[in-house]
Write a structure and sequence with these properties.
Blueprint (H helix, E strand, L loop, with lengths): L9 E7 L7 H11 L4 E7 L5 H10 L4 E4 L13 E2 L1 H6 L4 E5 L2 E5 L2 H9 L9 E5 L3 H12 L4 E6 L2 H14 L3 E6 L12 E4 L25 E4 L8 H8 L3 E3 L1 H17 L5 H12 L8
Parallel strand pairs: 1-2, 1-3, 4-6, 7-8, 7-10, 8-9, 10-11, 11-12
Antiparallel strand pairs: 3-5, 5-6
Helix pairs in contact: 1-9, 4-5, 4-8, 5-6, 8-9
């Protein structure tokens, strides 16, 4: 007997600009294949001017959902039909999920980051410095605060944006948050336990870009993290390793936030080891970069 089958795949994808350097498709399609999910993940280079059209196109084509990366995480909020409760605090979306006829904004960045961070250190009670105040920084700051971080210092070149994130943390979380202006080479305060680069400095193709940081202020007691997935071993992490710091690359966050997205879109909890292995193959890495 002929087995009926469908030729209509579930559509998901990424809206970003630039998008070519984003490796998310490798791990997402590896998970779909591993679990026998008939779905596709499309990497789309969408300009800020074209974001509304892209969202409307996803609606028209019945997409199950999509990720947003730079520079769309904040702008996409106004184009969605509703927001998850955590997003109302964070103010940025990296994952849209179709529920009925609506696209609802979620943010899986912070959860993905914390899952990766906890393989090395628990954020509870820690003094954290976050470089940047964009969408990823907002998600990481809020989730870290809710996880019990003792203090969070937000370092940003634009004072208004940095102070807005500090205000948000003060109003919605129990952590102590302060703003530090980023004017010249920033020195990490003594007593800091976790340093996070949540900027795009070092992202392919600008792999030799150097963060304006006083490297002498890093010491071996600190855990240094980067959210950039390409390249995984950023210049920032290599510099931190030379100072004796333990480091966490951006692939861990990418994998874990992607796993949550797949669960939202398909109902399947994917094997994160399969997803990480796919990225290790892409970047020719023998194992996750925790040192």
């Amino acid at each position: 007997m002929t087995v009926p089958r469908t030729f209509l795949s579930t559509l998901t994808g990424l809206f970003a600009s630039p998008a070519a350097e984003n490796p998310t498709v490798a791990m997402m399609e590896a998970a779909y294949h591993h679990h026998g999910i008939d779905a596709r993940y499309l990497t789309c280079d969408v300009s800020p001017a074209g974001l509304a059209d892209a969202v409307n196109g996803a609606r028209a084509m019945g997409w199950a959902g999509f990720n947003c990366s730079l520079p769309h995480k904040v702008a996409v909020v106004a184009l969605l039909d509703g927001l998850a409760e955590s997003v109302r605090i964070i103010g940025a979306v990296n994952c849209a999920v179709r529920r009925g006829e609506q696209f609802i904004g979620e943010n899986t960045d912070g959860r993905g980051f914390l899952t990766s961070l906890r393989t090395v250190i628990d954020p509870a009670g820690q003094a954290i410095v976050i470089l940047g105040a964009g969408g990823a920084a907002r998600a990481i700051a809020v989730e870290s605060a809710l996880a019990g971080a003792a203090t969070i210092t937000v370092v940003n070149r634009t004072p208004e944006r940095g102070r807005e994130l500090v205000r948000l943390l003060g109003e919605h979380t129990p952590t102590s948050a302060i703003f530090a202006p980023w004017d010249g080479a920033y020195s990490v305060p003594t007593g800091t336990t976790i340093v996070v680069n949540a900027t795009s400095v070092g992202l392919f193709p600008d792999v030799d870009s150097q963060i304006a940081l006083n490297l002498e202020s890093l010491d071996s007691s600190m855990v240094v993290c980067d959210v950039i997935p390409n390249p995984p071993r950023t210049r920032f992490l290599r510099d931190a390793q030379r100072r004796g710091c333990r480091t966490i690359d951006g692939l861990g966050m990418l994998v874990n936030q992607g796993a949550v997205a797949i669960e939202h879109w398909t109902g399947v909890s994917p094997d994160v080891d399969v997803m990480r292995a796919a990225l290790n193959d892409v970047f020719d890495l023998p194992s996750p970069d925790h040192t």
